[in-house]
Amino acid sequence: MAVAAIDLGMRLRVSRWGSDIMIPNGASEYKQIADTQAQTEDWVQLLETWHDHKSGLVGGMPSVMGAFGSSDHQLLALKEITDKYKSPYATHLAPLKNEREAVRGVFGKTPIERFDHFGLLTHNLLAVHTAYASETEYLRLLETGVNICHAPAHYGMLGENTLSETKQLGRFLRDGVWLSSSTDGDITFTGGMCEAMRGAHLGHNEALNCNTACPPTLALKTGTLFGAKALGWLDKIGSLEAGKQADIVLVDTSDYRFKLGNHPLRTYLVTGSSQDVDSVMVAGDWVVKDTRSTRFDEAELFADYQKAVASARQRIGRPS
After folding, report:
1. Structural domain includes residue 260
2. Cα–Cα distance between 250 and 236 in angstroms, integer?
3. Which of 32, 77, 153, 268 could form a disulfide with 195 if both were Cys (CB 3.0 to 4.6 A apart)?
4. What is the total count of domains within the chain?
5. What does the alpha-carbon distance between residue 98 and residue 128 come to, in Å, rounded to a whole number?
6. Is residue 255 part of a domain?
7. How far apart are CA 178 and CA 181, in angstroms?
8. CATH number for the domain including 127?
9. Does 117 or 97 have the greater pLDDT score?
10. 207: which residues sit within 8 A by CB, 6+ positions away?
11. What is the pTM of this model?
12. What range defines the domain where residue 184 resides?
């Protein structure tokens, strides 16, 4: 992935998820499922190879799946490694309402309390889908400056009420937290950053019953400035200002949708898509120009993809 990002001119925090345990339903003890030391060594190799890479586009980001999937030993190793390399790190933190009691039943602490215990609640932590923190934990997250990330366009497809049940993610925005948006990942394509920012704009306004909870300008920041901070690149990207690298996205506004309105950003967020992107500049280099990649032949790539799909279907015995 890192090599592909460099070839395409993309920025990427390349990661390896760590998860060395599982908690069976209703259990008071966890089950070891992976070699903790081997995963620790993977993190070291990751950072030795990609941390502050000379390309200027790629960096390392060790991560754990969540407090429910990591032993104390693994969390301690994560702390030691990220302190040594001064790298950001990520986890799913309080993303599920039933996680708290399951983790506390085994470790005597909630997920957020465990991370706090090991000194992992810092400005280098990227906490994802954090919608189920207690009031005390919420205030602790504000105090420690943890970066919060969510995937607002992803939840509805899965039937999750992550935005609306606790309204906590919208509360982070209201309280001034730099809540970033992501596309998340799934076998079903849910769009790019435009679609994620649309989810933030519409979802938080609806959940909080307030059309100023996440106005267009704030939604834009969740996909630009706030994301740059969460990835540890605030000094390089995220906004257009002197001293930063030129990362620019150009959107074609000649379409009738933009001519009918007087707020192009709102129009783009509500009616636009990633397909409206005309050109993309990364670090001063045009990587997409006039809707086409400057780095590769898209038709050739798609043809290769179709061959790979046909081959996979044949190998697993499914008809094409």
Report:
1. no
2. 19
3. 153
4. 1
5. 16
6. no
7. 10
8. 3.20.20.140
9. 117
10. 163, 164, 167, 170, 213
11. 0.93
12. 2-239
Query: Where are any strands of DSSP class E within the chain?
Result: 12-14, 17-18, 21-22, 31-32, 58-60, 63-66, 89-92, 125-128, 147-150, 180-181, 248-251, 277-282, 285-289, 292-293
Round to whole Å and give the CA distance between 215 and 220: 9
Q: Is residue 293 part of a domain?
A: no
Any idea what DSSP says for residue 151? -
pLDDT band at residue 157 under the 50/70/90 scheme: confident
User: How big is the CA angle at 43 (ends 38 and 47), to the nearest 5 degrees?
Assistant: 145
Tokens of 293: 């990649």
Query: Hunting for tokens 């989810």 — which residue is that?
Result: 199
Asked if residue 192 belongs to a domain, the reply is yes
Rounded CA-CA distance 191/173 in Å is 23
What pLDDT shows up at residue 113? 98
Q: What is the mean pLDDT of residues 207-226?
A: 97
Residue reference for tokens 């120009």: 289
The per-residue pLDDT for range 47-69, each reduced to its tens digit, is: 999 999 999 999 999 999 999 99
Which string of DSSP letters, residue by residue, matches 33-57? -S-HHHHHHHHHHHHHHHTT-TTSS
CA angle, corner 318, sides to 314 and 320, nearest 5?
A: 75
Helices (H) and strands (E) in the chain, counts: 14, 14
